[in-house]
What does this fold into?
Amino acid sequence: MSFKLIRQALNGNGMLPRMWRSHPVRDRYDVVIVGGGAHGLACAYYLAAEHGITNVAVIERGYIGSGGSGRNTAIIRSNYLTPEGVRFYDESVRLYEQMATELDFNVMFSQRGHLTLAHTDGAVRTMRRRAEVNKLQGVVSELIWPDEVERLCPGIDVSDHPRYPILAALYHPPGGIIRHDAVVWGYAHQADRRGVHIHQQTAVTGIDVRGGSVVGVETTRGYIRTGTVLNATAGWGSTIADMAGVRLPLTTFPLQACVTEPLKPFLNVVIVSGSLHVYVSQSDRGELVMGASVDPYTSYSMDSSLAFMESIAGHMLELFPFLSKVRVLRQWAGLCDMTPDYSPVMGFTPVRGFLVDVGWGTYGFKASPICGRTMAELIAGDRTPDLIHPFRLSRFEEFDLVGEKGAASVGH
It folds into this structure.
């Protein structure tokens, strides 16, 4: 990476090439991907890089990364509750570890460790169970006690003074944070290099289904003929599916987050508390990036609220009392599509050629690489990879759910 920067500095004109280009919309593509976030762009990249399918269009109504990929808190981990979830997210962590080299772009993946706090006896039992499930799947995860929590995070209050004292924590060393916009840009750049067309400021207005199969897509820039459409949207998964006549078991909630003014580095791990409904990490710029659970009502609104700020400030001070004078700089919200079992919906639908990668709730960004890779494999081979078979749409009819609420209901 450093040699590339030196060459660019010495090239004389100081102008860097565009990361991705603009193209006229073709009248036909082999694959149309709806959603220009990390999931959609990753799928486009892997289709081109691993399967040689390059006649692909990524359709984004805003700019790439403007949806969930640009509104999340960029926490990466694999310490989930079910064996299916642990295996799936562990593969995603492995891909993140290789990403900077694979995409030739610094995504700033910092594996600083992830702590999920337990404040009740029931939570301690859940953390112990998660630790054992993780170990059985080869994932590094262990139950630790307050003295070890304090060693890993010296500023945290482990006394018995708070309303919800810290009794234990699930420690997951491979967990960490990443630069979310860098992930989006890296996938976009490498997909573009391989011939994929990225169409920003282009909205999908309809999906043409005839005889039970997809034959085209209506957009604000014209009609596109195609036999394969992937719905890779966050917050709008059911809206796009409705265009194809497919009903999905999704409910949409706002999710809010905020960042503080930059502080001297002190938080070397990611902290999550299910009882307090808060998670926090410190960015490379020194900001505290904080979030909570989804809002308690369904909505497509992305407005911030005072109730969220009051709640998260109070809970943060229970964990870190010395932050009482710190100022919040920015606050924002995104949209989350939640399924009944808190696991995603991936793969085929009753409409031939209409595929889904949706229902990610608050935890979709960490799955971006493996989602892109497995969905590309599904499209190229017309079969569901074993790794994502548990997340098929038909599981709801078959009563074969993947219950991840115990590991995902807080957000990260």
